[in-house]
Amino acid sequence: MNTSVLSLAGIEKVFPNGVRGLSPVDLTVEKGDFVTLIGPSGCGKSTLLKLIANLHTPSGGKMNWWGGNFGDVGRKGRRMAFVFQDATLMPWATIAKNVRLPLDLEKVDRATADKRALAALERVGLGHVTEHYPAQLSGGMKMRVSIARALVTEPDLLLMDEPFGALDEFTRNRLDEEMARLCYEDGLTTLFVTHALHEAAFLSSRVMVMAARPGRIHAQYEIDRSILRNEEFRLSDQFAGISRELAILLEDASRESMIQQEVRA
Amino acid sequence: MMSSRTFSLLAPVTLGIIILGIWEGVCRFWHIPPYLMPSPSAIWRALMLDGVALLHALLITLEITFAALIAAVVGGVLVAFLLVQSPLIERCLMPYVVIMQVTPIVAIAPLIIILIHNTPLALTACAALVAIFPVISNTLQGLRSVDPDLAAYFQMHKASRLQTLTRLRIPSALPMFMAGLRIATGLSLVGAIVAEFVAGTGGNSAGLAYQILQSGFQMDIPRMFAALFLITVAGLVLYTAAASLQRFALRHRS
């Protein structure tokens, strides 16, 4: 049976203070998708991601992970990893220990964990800093470590919450290219939250444009998966075209968010 | 060009030497009697003359200081762990922790000395009471200062309570705890001296505070200064040791 990685039906979130963070959302993520959530602040994109990570509980609706419930997440074939906006490393532990953390929590034996941590670090080009501490690394390198910590569990779904928002443009572009490689070459299913239009245009196979007040999905935009996501693509007319169409959708979404705000006021 | 480290050591030492020089000069020039203000050289002579007795007294005071510090750290950490377990426990206990902190030790010391017959034990209890508060409050704050995203990460990976404690909470609390320890080290010495003053213990087990009191009664002001000098040196060494320990424990974090 071919089940979706993720299926959300009518998922909503009302915060304890009565604010409607998310009005019913339907979303399906299939294996190999790179889905991006983009929208103005307050559109609930981070809330949606945290609901999927089970860090928040939805107020209503039905959510399935690989056709099952959250209790089975973490088993083989249903592994989920999360990358935060900040690298969120343990400052007291070496890079190797940081990357090994999810394996240690699962009580994977030390030798295996070390080997897999090194392999994950090598995948993000950081095999040489295993014994360093986070404070010795640049922001971009720390983010790479954070990605390695996600990859080490061999996730079947990677959730990323504005992971490169704090980085400079150059570093961000390099990391975007690495992410594209992981998804389109290694087949890593990814759900990515960003507020950067060009990042969404570069990475996604599907972009969900969200609007605010209340948070909802405003539009959906598919991008050809067969495009090679590299430096050349970034400079192409095709990329410019995708960016422009996304910009129009986003403009639309934020205008609607504003109107809603005025109606309320 | 000297390094900033050498400079930060050399500058205060130079200032100290200048002040000592002026002090000595003033005492000699105006022939100020030593029972009013002894010259540094007179203090030094008193220290040499009575050094053995004073050092012995210092050792006794330091014993109490260390015992109190250990008690404060162990007790303070235990109380902090207890308080962090549930909001109910914290709400019940915290007011009493604060009451303990705001009551001056000089006021409770006589009571403790009456209640506990063993004098060194009573002195240790007084000093520990002074030093425990920064350990409690800092450890408590430290245990709470966990990066919320990192805590969410542990939750997402279904970490057990024990794993979260040993791999996240305790290491997260360490910087705050070390700061508390540094404050507590100084306070243990202060507490030990204050308790000795109140107890006024004489005889063989007399600490430095008693030596100061006794010298005062005998108008032996140079000896008073000599004892004071030893306390200052001890305090300085303790502070430096605690600060070095703090730096060492947190060496990878900044």
TrEMBL record, chain A:
Cited SMART domains: AAA
Matches recorded under InterPro entries: AAA+_ATPase, ABC_transporter-like_ATP-bd, ABC_transporter-like_CS, ABC_transporter_ATP-bind, P-loop_NTPase
Keywords, in A-Z order: ATP-binding, Nucleotide-binding, Transport
GO molecular function term, any single one: ATP binding
Domain of life: Bacteria
Pfam families referenced in this protein's UniProt entry, alphabetically: ABC_tran
Domain ABC transporter, first and last residues per copy: 6-239
PROSITE patterns for this protein: ABC_TRANSPORTER_1, ABC_TRANSPORTER_2
Family matches, as Gene3D superfamilies: P-loop containing nucleotide triphosphate hydrolases
Family note: Belongs to the ABC transporter superfamily.
Descriptive protein name: Nitrate/sulfonate/bicarbonate transporter ATP-binding protein
Lineage: Bacteria, Pseudomonadati, Pseudomonadota, Alphaproteobacteria, Acetobacterales
TrEMBL record, chain B:
Compartment list: Cell membrane
InterPro entries in alphabetical order: MetI-like (IPR000515), MetI-like_sf (IPR035906)
Transmembrane parts of this sequence: 6-30, 42-60, 66-84, 96-116, 122-140, 173-195, 224-245
Domain of life of the source: Bacteria
Pfam families referenced in this protein's UniProt entry, alphabetically: BPD_transp_1
PANTHER family, per database record: ABC TRANSPORTER PERMEASE PROTEIN, ALKANE SULFONATE ABC TRANSPORTER-RELATED, MEMBRANE SUBUNIT
Keyword vocabulary terms for this entry: Cell membrane, Membrane, Transmembrane, Transmembrane helix, Transport
Similarity annotation: Belongs to the binding-protein-dependent transport system permease family.
Principal cellular location given in the protein's record: membrane
Domain ABC transmembrane type-1, chain residue ranges per copy: 58-242
Coiled coil: none
Membrane topology: Multi-pass membrane protein
Name of the protein this chain belongs to: Nitrate/sulfonate/bicarbonate transporter permease
